[in-house]
Design a protein that fits this description.
Elements: H1 12-16, E1 20-23, E2 26-29, E3 42-45, E4 48-51, E5 63-73, E6 77-80, H2 81-84, H3 92-99, E7 103-106, H4 113-128, E8 137-141, H5 152-164, H6 167-172, E9 187-191, H7 197-212, E10 216-224, H8 234-237, E11 242-253, E12 259-266, E13 274-275, E14 300-301, H9 303-325, E15 334-337, H10 342-351, E16 359-360, H11 363-366, H12 373-383, E17 392-399, E18 403-410
Helix pairs in contact: 4-5, 9-10
Keywords: Fatty acid biosynthesis, Fatty acid metabolism, Lipid biosynthesis, Lipid metabolism, Transferase
GO cellular component, one term: chloroplast
Enzyme class: transferase
Length: 412
């Protein structure tokens, strides 16, 4: 590969350091910028102790967090490989052999990202036995929002409308938040990191709880990739589907902590291999005013390079997360990867010596649902009884950015 895409080279770890790591002892940067942050009444950094009374920096709280609920939602329309064969030169065999995908869900009618996100959130809250007003934060991980300024605050209002059965609120909620009856103005914001978005959401939720004193955080991964797919491009239209998945994280005692470690990375040099940029020819120039209204291109992907990136970087990241957690692959009950391609999932599992029966995969039914793929697969595994309380999972997301990251988590 060309030198410009250096994220594929053996120098990867040296090049992108420092990476972000989190373990049960606190937050750290791998190059020793902060060797340790102690969760106590003060902050210890670079050998200097500063008490909370001497600083305006909020003190870190000695808390853990655990996953207590999950939920998911998918559109009603199912599009099979045979359906795609009617519009592009492909076949069920061609797609399934190369990707492992047989069906995907696509929004239709009045379905949209917010509705999917709210449905998934509602199910997660019900499992967690948490009321909307008990939430301190909603994180919506998406790269396909209904509003360029973000959808998380609107999801909060829609969630209240759904749970209270107020249809007037449901239809009007996107316009006037204050008038629709929400009793709390919880913090809500979006996270954009494409297929790694849910992993960034988990990490952010962990920081808010362990470092900020938050109690209940809702993390939603939702994407409607069908809006940005070129349905005449056989290389991409066969891969993507729409869905939403959600989890509720709750503060707990430090010894019950269920988010054991993280390993997160990004490298913009590989962005040219996967993205949906603004169309340059519609941007206008500095000599034109007002500029033309921009629009985004359809998803553009170099599949071979993305495959190489994933099978090299993801195992390294998982191994790093396991090391930070003080565990080995033999201690893990389940491997849960972003559902991008079955060949990638199999290659990573083989390198890490995970047996097939310990790998969670629902790719065949939904395709690549971007930020929704991990929580969607987790929810199905939990509700089917496959994942049980106390089970340890190593999860990894990877995709556009390029971004990738892993976590070691305990369910329940």
């Amino acid at each position: 590969m060309a030198k410009a895409s250096g994220f594929f080279t053996p120098s990867l770890r040296t090049k992108i350091q420092p990476s972000i790591g989190v373990s049960r002892s606190g937050f750290c940067l791998s190059e020793g910028i902060f060797k340790r942050v102690v969760c106590s009444s003060g902050i210890e950094s670079a050998g200097t102790h500063v008490s909370s009374s001497q600083s305006r920096i909020p003190k870190l709280v000695n808390k853990g967090c655990k996953l207590v609920g999950c939920g998911s939602a998918v559109p009603s329309l199912s599009v099979s490989n045979d359906d795609l064969a009617k519009i592009v030169d492909t076949s069920d065999e061609w797609i399934s052999v190369r990707t492992g995908i047989r069906n995907r869900r696509v929004i239709s009618g009045k379905e949209n990202l917010r509705n999917l996100a709210v449905e998934a959130a509602k199910k997660a809250l019900k499992m967690a036995n948490v009321e909307p007003d008990d939430l301190d934060l909603i994180l919506l991980c998406t790269s396909t929002p209904e509003d360029i300024f973000g959808d998380a605050p609107k999801v909060l209002i829609l969630l209240d409308a759904y749970l209270n059965g107020n249809l007037f609120m449901l239809w009007q909620s996107c316009k006037v938040q204050r008038e629709l009856g929400c009793t709390k103005s919880q913090l809500a914001h979006d996270i954009t990191a494409a297929c790694s978005g849910f992993m960034l959401g988990l990490f952010s939720a962990s920081c808010y709880i362990k470092g900020g004193g938050f109690r209940n955080v809702l993390v939603i991964g939702a994407d409607v990739m069908s809006r940005f797919v070129d349905w005449t491009d056989r290389g991409t239209c066969i891969l993507f589907g729409d869905a939403a998945g959600a989890v509720v994280l709750q503060a707990c005692d430090a010894e019950e902590d269920g988010l054991l470690s993280f390993d997160l990375h990004s490298d913009g040099e590989g962005a040219r291999h996967l993205g949906a940029p603004i169309n340059d020819n519609e941007n206008g120039s500095v000599l034109e005013f007002p500029p033309n209204r921009p629009s985004y291109a359809c998803i553009q992907m170099n599949g071979k390079e993305v495959f190489r990136f994933a099978v090299r970087c993801v195992p390294q990241s998982i191994e790093s997360a396991l090391e930070k957690a003080g565990l080995t692959a033999s201690n893990i009950d389940w491997l849960l990867l972003h559902q991008a391609n079955q060949r990638i999932i199999d290659a990573v599992a083989t390198r890490l010596e995970f047996p097939p029966e310990k790998v969670i995969s629902n790719l065949a039914n939904y395709g690549n649902t971007s930020a929704a793929s991990i929580p969607l697969a987790l929810d199905e595994a939990v509700r089917s009884g496959k994942v049980k309380p106390g089970h340890t999972i190593t999860a990894a997301g990877f995709g556009a950015g390029l971004t990738w990251g892993s976590a070691v988590i305990r369910w329940g």
